[in-house]
Amino acid sequence: MGKYLKELEHFQNLKRRVFRSEPIRVLVTGAAGQIAYSLLYSIGNGSVFGKDQPIILVLLDITPMMGVLDGVLMELQDCALPLLKDVIATDKEEIAFKDLDVAILVGSMPRRDGMERKDLLKANVKIFKCQGAALDKYAKKSVKVIVVGNPANTNCLTASKSAPSIPKENFSCLTRLDHNRAKAQIALKLGVTSDDVKNVIIWGNHSSTQYPDVNHAKVKLQGKEVGVYEALKDDSWLKGEFITTVQQRGAAVIKARKLSSAMSAAKAICDHVRDIWFGTPEGEFVSMGIISDGNSYGIPDDLLYSFPVTIKDKTWKVVEGLPINDFSREKMDLTAKELAEEKETAFEFLASA
Ligand SMILES: NC(=O)c1ccc[n+]([C@@H]2O[C@H](COP(=O)([O-])OP(=O)(O)OC[C@H]3O[C@@H](n4cnc5c(N)ncnc54)[C@H](O)[C@@H]3O)[C@@H](O)[C@H]2O)c1
């Protein structure tokens, strides 16, 4: 009987908390696509914003996808998720971006056969300029914007530039998938699980020039934390195959699956957004693409570059003062150079888009 009463009390407390919180409004774009299909359930079931946070979930896709989006909407309804106060499916930006607390921008123009990188960039500048302007006009000024659609860093910069009334710090792009890939490779090599590995870093662009760096990473072995270099004693693997495996993991998944990463991308988005919402654990840092202004690592200002960050009170801070060796320096500069070139091309289009 005591156990039953305790459970009842717990349930009533939970119910009270759920009904007391105001719902937050969360947008997912590209909502008819494959990443969204893996992502929406996790958002709806409380795995991202907490089990007592009601949500109004807004789904945006382009007009030709409205039929598919209807199916996604039906499935979300059929999940009967108690935290979902409403689900809105639309192809209209003025509805999608209204009063947002969080915007997860997944939808973008995919690369088609024969398409030059420049053409892809141009098409995406157009999309992210429009969506940035819609955020500026309709969303809350406190909105947190997470860009996933590729080229994610430059799309994020474009959206931020197009939303001048929203602080630049509210924009970030996803490099958490690369971060998770790096953690997983180290864990596999050492025969531990990925939660035993922490503080890997992805520097720079979410592209094959990214630099996965484990110079500051730690692994828990027999209950003791040691540096990854010390634990592995295999510098040539760490400086060679490990880096290329992480850099080219996306292409390897496409080759095997004939489709790009979706389940792992959705999981990484959940990790990224949950950390923004609740903060990073003490003593741990994560990677995310953020504005480079004023960093201490010699990366030029005004790039959307992936750094190690800690997060508290929904605000990120770059982890400062990590020593950088010559090997890392070269790789960090190379990926910065690529981002500067992407930015230059994007900005040529931005004026005319
Ligand atoms: N940053 C990362 O780590 C990472 C990882 C994996 C994938 N991605 C990128 O995420 C994006 C989505 O991947 P996916 O596998 O879900 O693709 P997908 O093709 O399955 O879905 C994309 C969806 O976006 C929609 N869309 C296109 N333009 C839109 C617009 N202007 N507004 C709203 N919706 C729009 C499409 O109609 C489609 O439904 C791709 O650009 C992919 O390269 C990024």
From TrEMBL:
Lactate/malate dehydrogenase N-terminal domain: residues covered: 25-171
Pfam families hit by this protein: Ldh_1_C (PF02866), Ldh_1_N (PF00056)
Domain of life: Eukaryota
Xref: PROSITE patterns: MDH
Keywords annotated in UniProt: NAD, Oxidoreductase, Tricarboxylic acid cycle
Domain Lactate/malate dehydrogenase C-terminal stretches: 175-349
Family matches, as CDD domains: MDH_cytoplasmic_cytosolic
EC code: 1.1.1.37
UniProt catalytic activity: (S)-2-hydroxyglutarate + NAD(+) = 2-oxoglutarate + NADH + H(+); (2R)-2-hydroxy-3-(4-hydroxyphenyl)propanoate + NAD(+) = 3-(4-hydroxyphenyl)pyruvate + NADH + H(+); (S)-malate + NAD(+) = oxaloacetate + NADH + H(+)
Top EC category: oxidoreductase
InterPro entries: L-lactate/malate_DH, Lactate/malate_DH_C, Lactate/malate_DH_N, Lactate_DH/Glyco_Ohase_4_C, Malate_DH_AS, Malate_DH_NAD-dep_euk, Malate_DH_type2, NAD(P)-bd_dom_sf
HAMAP family on file: Malate_dehydrog_2
Function recorded in the entry: Catalyzes the reduction of aromatic alpha-keto acids in the presence of NADH. Plays essential roles in the malate-aspartate shuttle and the tricarboxylic acid cycle, important in mitochondrial NADH supply for oxidative phosphorylation. Catalyzes the reduction of 2-oxoglutarate to 2-hydroxyglutarate, leading to elevated reactive oxygen species (ROS).
Family stated for the protein in its record: Belongs to the LDH/MDH superfamily. MDH type 2 family.
Protein name: Malate dehydrogenase
